[in-house]
Amino acid sequence: MNSASLLIVDDEAGVRESIRLIFGKQMRVLEASSSDEAVRKIRQETPDVILLDILMPGTDGLETLKQIKGIHPEGQVIMLTALNTARTAFSAKETGAFDYVTKPFDVDELRLRVERALEKTRLSRELEQLREEVGRKYGIENIVGKSKAMLEIFKAVSIVAGKKSTVLIIGESGTGKELIARAIHYNSERRSKPFVVVNCAALPDTLIESELFGYEKGAFTNAYQRKVGHFDIAHGGTLFLDEIGEMGLGTQSKLLRAIETETFTRLGGTEESTVDVRIIAASNRDLEKLAKEGGFRADLFYRLNVVSLHLPPLRVRREDIPLLADHFLRIKARENSMPSKTLSAEIVDCFMTYPWPGNVRELENLIERLTILSPNETVLLSDLPQAMRNQDQWATLREEVLRGSCPLSDAVDEFERELILRALQKSGFNRTKAASLLGTSRRVLRYRMEKLKIIESDPGQDDSKMSR
What we know:
- It is built from 20 helices and 14 strands.
- The protein is α/β, with parallel strands linked by helices.
C-alpha cells in the first residue's frame, strides 16, 4: 500500500489527526477541512481512497460526494457518519460511495474498509489496463494485410466503428470474422463495454433463446433462479452473433423484434427489458440465397445487412501470406517463450501455392506447430506436414509444365506413380487391395507398376507378401 494515497475530509482536526496516525506509515495521507478544499486537492492529487465526513459545514457530505464522483469517478469514497445518520449513509452508497464507517470508528474496521477500497481501486486499474491492451490488440492498425481487398475492409471498419448500424460479416471459416467484429467494437465508443460472443452453431434451438434472452425463475423445469441472457450482459456494448445462418427460424423472429424495438422479454417473464446493444452478425453461408430458399428470414437478413463486409479467403489474397506468417511467428514465439524463427525460401514458396482451405486460422495453427516442433532456427520444408509437402510438389510440377520445362506426359506419369505408391502403402503393399482402392484390376496395376518402374516390394516386406 506504500504507493497508495488517502484523503481525509473532515472539519474536525482531531479526527483527521487520529486517522493520519493509523495510515500515515502505510500510505500518503492528505487532509481537507472543507468541501471546497477537498475538491481542489482531488483535482490536483486524484487520491485512491477518500474518507468523507457526511456532516460538513456549508456543503454537506452528500453534495461533496456528487462533486467528487463527477471529477474523480475512479476514487473510492468511504463515508464517515454518526450513528444517527446511518440511513443517510445508505443513500450515500446509492449515490456512489464505496462504503461507510460509523463514528466513533473501530480502528480494525476502518483498516479493513480502506484495504477493500484500495483493492477495488487496484482491480479497476488492472481492468482499465486490460481494456487498453485489448483495444491496442484489436486496433485496425494491428490487423495484418496489404492486399487491395483487405485495405478496403480496413477502410470500411474505420467508418462503421463510429456508427451504431448493424453489421453483417460474410466469409469462409477461418478468414477472421470475429477479429474484424472485435476491431469494430474496440474502435468504437462502446470499447469500454462488453463484447459478447454467441456461437449460434454451437447452441441447439432448445437453448439458444434462453442464452440470448435469459429466463425467469420457474420458466421451466430446473429453472431454479433467474438467468441473465447475453443481451443483458452485452448492454451498452456489442453482441457478436457468429454463424447466425445456423439459427432456427423461431429464434430469428424474436431476435428481429429485439433488434427493431431494442427490447426483449425473458423466457417465462412478462416484463419487457430495454437494452442498448450493437449487433454484429457473421456467417460462412450466403444468407441472401438462404433467405430466398426459405432457410433464413428475409426481413432479418435485410435488418442485419445494413452494412455488409465480405472477407476474402486467404487463397485470393496471397500477397498477405508472408506478412501473416511473420506476424504469427513473432506472436507464437512470445506466447510459448521461445526465440522467434524464420521461414526458409522454400517454405514461403510452398505457402504461396498452397490453397489454405482453413484460411488464416490454418496458417496460424501451422505456424504455432512449426514454432514449437521445428528444431532449427530457420524452418525448413522438411518440417512441414507431409500433405503440404506433397501439395507443394504438385504445384511445382504444374508450374514446370506451364513453363514448358516438363513434358505433360512426364507430369502425368509422376502423378500416377504417387497415387499407386499411396494405394500400396494404404493396403499394406497388397496389390489386390491396392488395385481395388484405385478402381482397377490387379493385372492393370501390375502393368502400370512395371511401366513406371515402381519397386514391387516395400523395404519392410518380402516379394512373397507382395504377390499374395
